[in-house]
Amino acid sequence: MSPTSSKRPVAVFQHTEVGAPGTVLPILEELGWPVEIIRIVDGQPVPVSAAALSGLIFMGGYMGVDDNLPWIPQELDLIRDADARGIPVAGHCLGSQLVALALGGEVHKHSAPEIGWNQLSAADGPQAQEWWGQYAGRTLETFQWHEDVFVPPPGAVQLASAPYCDPQVYVVGGRHMLIQSHLEMTPKLVELSLEKNGAQLLRQSALGNPAVSSMDETRRDVSRRTQAMSDILKQLYSRWSQGLTV
Q1: Is 117 strand, coil or helix?
Q2: Is 3.40.1190.20 the CATH classification of the domain at 10-243?
Q3: How many Å apart are CA 204 and CA 116, to the nearest integer?
């Protein structure tokens, strides 16, 4: 039996077609962790317990945490179960909001959507350097697409902020990772986002929202930009995966 096959899997929850895991899967595989995709988008049920898992990762989606969908309270319960067992949890966009809410934070509508390419300011200091590595203290680029935003749980440590939305990356309890933006994007997912939701980008751009890229800018140099995000995300997951249980 290989070292990877002997480990409990990391469950990755996919809520929508656009909210695919992207680079999360190859990153976890490169780090030596087996992955089980829970396709909520296709009606797959939420596990009732996290006991058989090494970690949990919740991806994005167009829905909000207060929407009347049966799997939302089930995922909140599962996050709390994982936390009680000491199993690391991570969330991207909607996923970060679910994790924040489950662990004692809040979620509310942001003042205006963030869409497209925006800056992240990575924190510095001992704990930030532990998570960011070479990226600590630097200005980074990320891909955004959200209307809601989380208020972090009590005791959360902020690892990144942004000009148009301060809560961006947090760590809770030294093990749970909340990422408001979409560092996991691939060129294919950027194009799919524009295909499915580009009308929102155009509306917000026409309104003069400074947190929204133009269509041309969103499509510019996508391969290089998404590769840079993948390198950043690998660094974060390298640290997050240190808490995973075999």
Answers
A1: strand
A2: no
A3: 11
